Amino acid sequence: MAREVDNEAERTSRRHGFPPEDYPPFNGIRRIRPQLFGEVSRYLNDPDPQVRAVVVTACIPLLDDSRLVHHQKDLVPLVRSVLATSGRWQHQELALETLRAWGEDTSGMEVRRDPFEFCDSEVDGTGWATAISCGDDLPF
Fold it and tell me: Which of 2, 29, 85, 103 could disulfide-link to 61, CB 3.0 to 4.6 Å?
């Protein structure tokens, strides 16, 4: 949800002739980004590595808000230790993109993408790919 109202989404919307100020849900979500960050960030140090990965991933798009941008420096170590070292290429890619966008050094970082892997999915008995779920009991 936060990624759909981040600064890039705003630029894209404007470029296509849809000013975000004309769309109340867009502005409503942007208005509550500090509250969302406050609630989600409480779990940044959760002992479960899957929870930490989900929380770091959820925080990243919130931090382009001018009221929250100062938290980027605090999140850099977690982006490096949780996402950049993840076994999931999607997390590695997000870490690389995020650190570059935040002006951090990414030398030596690479995404270990498996060209035969499809979004960390498994094929069920029907031959269709089914996404792996982290479960329904999210802590936030």
Answer: 2
